[in-house]
Predict the 3D structure of the following.
Amino acid sequence: MAEKERVYTIPLRRVWVEVPRVRRANRSVSEIKRFLSRHMHAENVQISKALNEIIWKRGAKKPPAKLKVKARLEDNVVKAMLPEEKEPAKEEKKGGKLGGIKEKLAKAGIVEQEVKEIEKKAEQAVVEKGKVAEEKGKETKEGGEEIKQTAEEKQNEGKKV
């Protein structure tokens, strides 16, 4: 399906006047979705974070009376955003627990050698946490066996008397 991109001004006042004051922003969000699904001929509508923040900016009781929205239809999904908002770039997933550390440190201006040292420390911390967890598990198992033995001894003593 070809991509369609349109800009709509959605009137919201007529809709949220009919509902209780505290539900106005919720009703505005559902009306935007309903409006866009009707006009773009698609059932699935996604609202961007920026658009959602504009709706909720003044709280649940005072949403905007009308909104200008840019709608883009892709694969039977309508993505609603502000007209001046750009399409968010898809980020690649970082691998493992230490995946994004290099990029963050590079942005901060830390040298590669320092990055390697920090990575080693982080790996050591992960390993140490694992060792501590294993030791705690052993202690509880040993302690549990001792508790069972003492409970059995008490029962046996009660039977002897």
